[in-house]
Specification:
- The chain is mainly α.
- It starts with a helix and ends with a helix.
- A hairpin with a 4-residue loop joins strand 1 (about 160-165) and strand 2 (about 170).
- Helix 10 crosses helix 12 and helix 12 crosses helix 17 (about 395-410).
- About 55% of the residues lie in helices and about 5% in strands.
- The chain has a four-stranded mixed beta sheet, sandwiched between helices.
- The protein has 18 helices and four strands.
- It is elongated, with a radius of gyration of 42 Å.
């Protein structure tokens, strides 16, 4: 036992000795230290009050030599920098100022764009809120069938809602509100028309023939859903209305009427002459004898409906007893049902270019297509006073009542004849 205890004590003492040697060795080479780390700056501050009067010269070590060499290089570089030619320094300064100005202009442009987008978004929200307020009864205007749900709208009244499943878009077209060009856009997006020259679907809206684009067979509308989907049609309509982006374009109701009259009765149009023009002439034109059989003959003889007769025709209760208003003068709320369909975008002909640009971005197709820049409708809003100058004030007020809901829904100001009554 004594021998065993002696061996244990020797082993322990030997271990302690080896640990001490390791500590001393690492302490010498700076790899390890049991002493707390000291900040040289603090060391100087502490020794400043009681520094010894004599100081031994600093020892030169590899680390100190490297530090000295590094300091010399920095010093030399700094000295060299002080000898940069004046012209070069000035050029460098001007270049820096130029970059700063460019960055500032870029930032200002970005801020302006953000402000413009923000202002436009506010305008869109105001247009949609206006519709919501009118449809909910907050405005003092009568809304026919305001509480009628979409599911109760007959299929025949849904023939203006064009559907593009590829891009998930629903467009309600309103005649005399740039609908030709918007139909061109829809034809290109849906690839529903093949070009005769290339044998491929049209890719440029302006290339789509204007007379062809109004062919109803080119467009898939809600009115066609029953034939295509049967009993599932209403369910599919509801899903698409919920998930697709829906838009329409509107214009001042009275100016739209002027545009419709000019387009359909201001020049020979056989279909509109036989169906509507001849009726107006017989009822309100005091025409004796038989009317010319064709529009061309009637125009040649100086026989054509007047704007006054057109307005009288619209106000005549017998007109809609015989047949529903033609789409070119039917009210927008009856074409597009804004109280039943919550549109995501409300465009106006008065701001067509700006609205078209923002809409294509909203639809995420601005990289695929651009809105046609061709001839637009030439009926100016400023013409309203001239066209209505010969219409009695009482008649103008009756006409306003007929289109009042369109005025109110889309925020158009009341005509002077209504304001001054």
């Amino acid at each position: 036992m004594g021998t065993w205890r002696g061996l244990r004590v020797a082993f322990i003492m030997g271990s302690l000795f080896m640990i001490l040697l390791i500590i001393v060795y690492w302490d010498d080479v700076g790899g390890f230290s049991l002493y707390p780390l000291k900040d040289p700056k603090h060391e100087v501050l502490q020794s400043g009050c009681c520094a010894p009067t004599t100081m031994s010269p600093p020892q030169t070590t590899p680390a100190s030599r490297a530090h000295t060499t590094s300091s010399s290089i920095v010093s030399t570089t700094a000295s060299s920098a002080s000898f940069i030619p004046k012209e070069a320094a000035q050029e460098h300064t001007e270049e820096g100022k130029g970059k700063q100005k460019h960055a500032q202009r870029k930032e200002e442009t970005r801020e302006d764009a953000e402000m413009e987008i923000s202002a436009y978004d506010r305008e869109q929200e105001a247009r949609k809120k206006r519709i919501d307020d009118v449809c909910s009864g907050k405005e003092d205007v009568e809304v026919p069938e305001r509480t009628r749900p979409f599911s109760q709208i007959p299929n025949r009244e849904l023939d203006h809602l064009i559907v593009d499943d590829t891009h998930q878009i629903i467009y309600c077209y309103v005649p005399k509100v740039a609908c030709t060009n918007w139909k061109r856009v829809m034809v290109v997006l849906s690839q529903s028309l093949i070009s005769g020259s290339s044998g491929k679907p049209y890719t440029d809206p302006e290339a789509v023939p204007a007379d062809v684009v109004h062919n109803s067979t080119l467009h898939l509308t809600f009115a066609k859903f029953w034939r295509r989907y049967g009993s599932l049609s209403r369910h599919l309509m509801a899903l698409k209305l919920q998930h697709y982006t829906k838009f329409l374009f509107v214009r001042d109701p009275f100016v739209r009427l002027i545009s419709a009259f000019r387009n359909k009765f201001g020049r020979p149009n056989e279909d509109f002459y036989r169906q509507f023009g001849s009726v107006m002439l017989r009822r309100y034109g005091n025409v004796s004898g038989d009317l010319p059989e064709t529009a061309a003959e009637a125009f040649k003889a100086g026989i054509k409906p007047t704007f006054q007769q057109f307005i009288t025709y619209l106000l005549d209760p017998e007109t809609e007893k015989e047949s529903i208003f033609n789409e070119h003068w039917r009210q927008v709320y009856r074409l597009c049902h804004p109280c039943q369909v919550k549109y995501d975008f409300i465009g106006k002909l008065e701001t067509l270019e700006t609205d078209a640009e923002h809409l294509l971005k909203l639809l995420k197709v601005d990289h695929l297509i651009r809105f046609p820049s061709g001839a637009q409708n030439k009926t100016a809003a400023s013409w309203e006073r001239d066209w209505f100058a010969q219409i009695p004030i009482s008649t103008q007020r009756q006409l306003y009542k007929l289109y009042e809901l369109d005025f109110e829904l889309f925020g158009y100001p009341k005509p002077d004849s209504v304001l001054h009554q």
